[in-house]
Amino acid sequence: MASNKTLVPEAKEALEKFKMEAASEVGVNLTQGYNGDLTSRQAGSVGGQMVKKMIESYENSIKNNK
To answer: What is the pLDDT along the chain (66 residues), one digit of tens a residue?
Structure first.
């Protein structure tokens, strides 16, 4: 079963900002709070953009550590 619990509670605010930035980049309008009216495609594009940015960040950290 999936869970939306933040593993590091101190990061919750930063994660919300990250999600809003990713949504803006793919042209999805999110609001604070309930966003259950999004289509699956919209929600997937936001999640996909977040993953893409996380992978890019990790790759850059690897590159900079070499």
So the answer is: 567 788 898 999 999 999 999 999 999 999 988 999 999 999 999 999 999 999 999 999 999 987
* Overall pTM surpassing 0.85 (yes/no): no
CA-closest candidate to residue 22, choices 2, 1, 42: 42
Burial class (CB in 10 A: 0-12, 13-18, 19+), 23: buried
Nearest CA to 16 out of 37, 48, 46, 61 is that of 46
